[in-house]
Amino acid sequence: MTDSPADGRRQFAIDAENLQVTYSDGTEAVKEVSLSIPRGEFFGFLGPNGAGKTTTIKTMSTLLKPTGGTIEVNGFDAVAEPRKVRESIGYMAQETSVDEELTARENIRFACESYGVPRSERSERINELLELVDLADVAEKTADDFSGGMKKRLDAATALVHRPPLVFLDEPTTGLDPKARNRLWEYFQRINDQGTTIFLTTQYLEEADQLCDRLAVILDGEIVADGTPSDLKREVGGEILDVNLDDGADQYQQAARIARDSGIFPETPTVDVTDHGITVTAQTARQHGTDLLVALRDEGITVTGFNVRAPTLDDVFLAITGEHLDDDAVDSEETTAAAAARPDGGEQ
Amino acid sequence: MSSETAAELVERSSNTFFGDVWVNFVRWNLKAVRNPFVLVVSLVQPIIFLVLFTEVFGNIAGQELPPGIPNYDTYLVPAIAIQVSLAAAVTSGIGLVNDIENGMFEKVLVSPMNRTAVFLGKTLAELLRIAVQIGIILGLGVVLGAEIETGILGAIAIMGIGVLFSLWFIAFSNTLAIITKDQESTIIGANLLQFPLLFLSSAFVPVESLPSWIQTVAKVNPVTYGVDAARAVILDADVMEIWDITAFDGIWNTLVPAIGVLAGLGLVLGAVAVFMIRRAASADVR
């Protein structure tokens, strides 16, 4: 009988039930979010800007009191025992937070002192973290000369001084170049491998796809999808046929009609008009794709290119929310697709 | 494994209140030393005032001074000490705004440190800086010819008065910082007040030689109380002109009311600032 309810809860790094945040002007930033995140999981929280990602993360890290519902973080109630929660989490805000007047070492030392890392362990811990985020060679330089990526890494290091079992990362790589982003990913992966639970919000679907064990999508303050990246992709239903057409909105509409209504695909496919032509999502997209191309040609519609592919998270996102996460994300999705063709999965 | 980490961790975070004060005290001192702007700029203007005023107005103003004052330098140094206090107090709010802008404010809030200790540590660092800067001004004043009647103890007392005086303006600049959340507005707001406050007081010439409307303003101007207290110490005399108090003995007829007013003002505005900072730091949804 080890599975008493209390023990069961202890397994979760985060256990939120019916979380609600309503601002005094009536804005419901978070409507009803319930999440249980097991220890050790790399959890991704996706959603467009303003969907409630940051508000949710702030309630979990005690910066904001929810107006409804309960949250337990590492077994502590976030409202009743905020200090216990604070001691047991690392938090990296969306805006890079470093003291630019202090050196890298001093920033980490201040964080060590803030979190009560014992004096005897401090210098060792500081050196270890400087190594981990590749800032050892600039340890004595003040952070005002650092690049955006270096500041982010320093910020990340300060969130880890007390070896927290749970770390919140709020869009940690937004605004970084791909190289800096890759470096941070590697580093998050490393601390997750060491057993740290990670709660990540991101705008980059590639990031979510590469790093996360499980994802939830939040839209207008509510969770609308939840599962592993491959579960979510499977839910899109089948494969995707992109067809590029000669310019002309009429042509696009006509092509969409043909794809949907002419019975080429046994089940009724999902058809979207894109900037370049149409996209058809169907179980049999691969088998019957050529039939569609022939039908289009017979109607006098010029096909300039086509491609059959497995769904990406962007397709998931599009299917759920009716919009792309952002343009940037579309770009990175394309790079992932290209990189995925290589056995090393795009690691550089 | 991870649950062990959590338990181990809670045990470790044994920060004491004074530990938290110390950590923040160290951080803000480090920042002050690092940033020459903070240290030098709040000294430069008062030094320019000290040198220019004594050189330009010294002869004329010296003749107008009440009897018993050796020279204008001696008369002016207490005013410059208060000016330093005023200028340095502005940087307190600027520091807070900076922390809000660069995310350190939130970073501190998400840490387990005691919030009161955080702001106490920051303020203590600023008070220390004010005491040191006033010490520099006193040294410079003596070099220029000012005479401190009450000697070293008097010099220390003037630093203390400067620190006490700074409290209301530190509170004010922090309140301004929380309200505007913008560095420039805080600097402008606090600096705009500096000159009127200084000139509409007993700082540069005896109040009785000023137009009557300025005399009225001087009565309610905290700078008058700060300057009078510091001046009473440097001259070892009752110098308060705006009120005629005789209930105490000599110099105390100035010191008691002046210190009382400054302490009261510091408490009231301090309470406002604490309220504002608490509100900004609170996790309540608004």
Model regions low in confidence, pLDDT < 50 over at least 5 residues of chain B? 1-13
- The SSE order of chain A reads HEEEHEEHEHHHEHEHEEHEHEEHEHH
Overall average residue pLDDT of chain B: 88
* Tally of contiguous helical segments of chain A: 13
Give a short account of the largest sheet of chain B: none
Greatest chain-chain contact: A-B, 52 and 34 residues
What is the spatial order of strands in the main beta sheet of chain A? Answer: 6-7-8-3-9-10
Helix content of chain B: over 70%
How much is the radius of gyration of chain A in Å?
23 Å
Q: Any idea what the radius of gyration of chain B is? A: 21 Å
Low-confidence stretches of chain A: 1-9, 327-348
Taking the alpha carbons of the first and last residues of chain A, their distance comes to: 48 Å
Describe the structure.
The complex is a heterodimer of chains A (348) and B (286). Chain A starts with a helix and ends in an 8-residue tail after the last helix. With 348 residues, chain A is of the alpha/beta class. In chain A, helix 4 crosses helix 5. With 286 residues, chain B is an all-alpha fold. Chain B has one domain. Chain B is 78% helix and 0% strand. Chain B contains twelve helices and no strands. In chain B, helix 3 runs parallel beside helix 7 and helix 11 crosses helix 12. The longest helix of chain B has 30 residues. The radius of gyration of chain B is 21 Å and the shape is elongated. The interface between A and B is large, with 52 and 34 residues.
